Amino acid sequence: MKILLINNFHYIKGGSEAVYFNMADMFVKAGHSVVFFSTTDSRNRDYGSNKYFVEQNNSVNPILGAMRYVYNGSAKRALERLIATEKPDIAHIHLFWGGLSSSILGVLKRHYIPIVHTAHDYRMVCPAYTFRRVDGTVCDKCLGGNYIHCLTNRCSKGKVAHSALMTFEAYFRKWFIRPIDAIDGFVFVSSFSYEQHLKAMPALKDKLCIVAHNAIEPLPESAISTAMGNYYLYFGRLSHEKGLETLIRAFTALPQLKLKIVGEGDMESRLKQMVTTDNIDFCGYQSGDTLRQTIKNCKAIVVPSEWYENNPMTIIEAQSAGIPAIGARIGGIPEIVEPNKTGYLFTPKCVDELISALQSMESLRAEQYAEMSQICKETAAAMFSADALYPKIINLYNTLLCHSSNKA
Known about the structure:
Helix content is 41%, strand content 13%. By secondary structure, it is α/β, with parallel strands linked by helices. The strands form 2 sheets. A 6-stranded parallel sheet has the order 2-1-3-4-5-6, sandwiched between helices. The protein is globular. The two termini are 18 Å apart.
């Protein structure tokens, strides 16, 4: 089977890109052919041909970039050329809104290529994709398709212009390219995500949908924890919805505990200004073996999200290394963090509860921590491995291909 994998970015920008590449590895090892379609960037991985990739919207003038944000004609034409040459059997789309855009859906439909979409976020039903206003309030007012709330609440970083663009793009899809009609099968990475989408799109009941947690390749032995570390770790984007201000406040109140923050983003300068103690270190962007070693040597990761997080790759990567997680009780996080077994949960934005969770981790004896670490590894092997994911995905593909051939 020749599988076309589509994503806005061809480098590790976040968890969705990790899934995109891990899925490619999974298919190649199973004997399938993989073709990529994405955008050009100096940070792109040297993985697969990039001769069909298109330039990112931010590399052109603002007016053209805004037009491509809504409907990317360049991506549409490039995808036509790819299909003519590569002739993929099925397309699996990850992130594409606001980049490659919904323009690619029509191309795939015209060539009778079944389309699968993994919903890494809530962009199909929330223009700003996080169900979160700029003031931090969780909001689902757009669920009914009345997307104007994104603009009136300035949901995109408090900026009118970008919130307006997101709102217009959502209405464009609603009126002209309905994803629910174009996409043949959906992968939701948590049950919570599926239920949220179902509220907004009842027609999902008539679509082929599966819930499949993200997966990663087995880690090398050198990346797996063998002892309790002496610091806590946050790694990921430094953005508003991630709850990092709560994280800083908690560790400021616990100066005896060390925190490392790995990542970059638009919150970085604001967070650094908040730090008044010397127990919090900003380590910048890390990837590959460097990041694996940082994870391996920590005591626990902290995921203080304040949005409906789906199935954080940070937790999956940590548990695979035998590292527990302290996570906010929101979105899909409670589905993969079991209190007192693989970590602890706390109420989002609640500094006191996060402090209590950290103190619970600190109170563990060495043998208790070792047991928690072992449960993490066992859980990861059962839930987040390619062996667990592959049958679900390939069965979905085969079902769609069967339906497609019957229609033909």
